[in-house]
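pipeline stage [seq->struct] | target=FAD dependent oxidoreductase domain-containing protein | organism=Manduca sexta | residues=462
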Amino acid sequence: MNMYCRIIKQTKSLLYLRPYSTKNPFSKTWNTISQDIPYFFKLREEEIVYPEHADIVIIGGGLIGVSTAYWLNTRAGEGISVVVLEKDFSYSEMQKKFKYGTLTQHFSLPENILLSQHSAEFLRNIKQNVNNNVDIQYFPTGSLVLASEQYADKLEHNVAIQKEHGLRNELLSPNELKSKFPWLNVSDVKLGCMGVESEGIYNSWELLKGLIHKTKELGTTYVNAEVVGFEMEKQRDVLMEGIPPGSFERIIRVIYKTPNNEEHKIKFSGCILAGGAYSSDIAKLAKVGTGDGMLAIPLPIDKREHGSYIIKGKAAETGLSTPLVNDSSGFWLRRNGLDNNLLCGQLPSINPEHQNEIDIDTIKCSLQNRFSNYENCEIQQHITETYDCNVYDDSGILGPHPYHNNLYIATGFGKYGCQHAPGIGRAIAELIIDSQFTTIDLTRLGFDRLLVDEPVIEFNVY
């Protein structure tokens, strides 16, 4: 079927293509009218469009993928066609596990600091950027980092870097911490740092919904589908170091399967891999990690689970000014919005051998060490979130693959992916439209660092 796209109409469990009938002209006209009237009055479900061509295909409809679609459409307008493939089109799992995002600027890498600054600006102007009806429920809690004696010097070093980028942070001694936050146990704390500007929590689910709505208005097409393969085309005139002449293959189509197990293909100019924890498996479909030469190096993304726990009825003791607290052990604590509850958890380890060692007993031990009013705390498991962890250096991978130069990677940002998504999406759009980074130089986060073994490590104290 040689068309730009296939349009399939769906009613409940019936999926069909409207045929061109050879019936009596009156019957044919009546059938056409009877089918079109319900669609005109929106009495049936919307048409399902399966495009066969697109300028850009984005694999993954999470915040990073949708943010990329937003920036591509915002900058290029109708001059670019964008398709987003998302296997959980209902976002059912995301709605259960994906509500509050955090905004912090406590980093050692300039790239992370600059991405957070951009996110703060983007969220501050969310109604102008996305829609007046979007309410991300931003709550400026501030962010407090606690360093043990072992990490105090590192914290001071990080604060110096942050101040070079214009951040307003306040270093606090244990006595000052206790005076400011009487409910904190600081017996093992050497130094604290309080972020006093553009740090807090927000409803990331509302942000995602707003961006999806906006990108649809701007022309992005969303398809409920799971990627199952790529088609490649030999380009004998391409010469690349380490690749035998005449053997280079360029990815030109993505193959995907719908919930009805139908396979479709989209031919594209560029493809963006923003598949989160599943990115490595998707990359293998393009021979990344299974081929020769540059294709022998896998995309080092693995799934990490991070459980959060709810402490009932204790938020009144810490007050509305309770900051997001992180300490050197990886333990974190914050208010659960305006509820009279606290949330806490332990950041997952990059080492897969230790990822399942965190349980409620570990949390209770960490909580007892940090929260003075630990007695009579009622603790329950809240939710388990899934992160895309870059097991190479725990920093995100961003930019074109060195072999597949039309495959742009945006994954592995882990716990920072949610808050950095606006800047990550803008960066990918710059690479596609401008052929270079024009706002924040994120070159160091490229896949090339895996080839030369130069990790980019965020040396935070938590």
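stage status: PASS
auto-comment: Residues 55 and 80 are 6 Å apart (CA to CA). The chain has three domains: 1-46, 97-203+303-390, 207-300+393-452.
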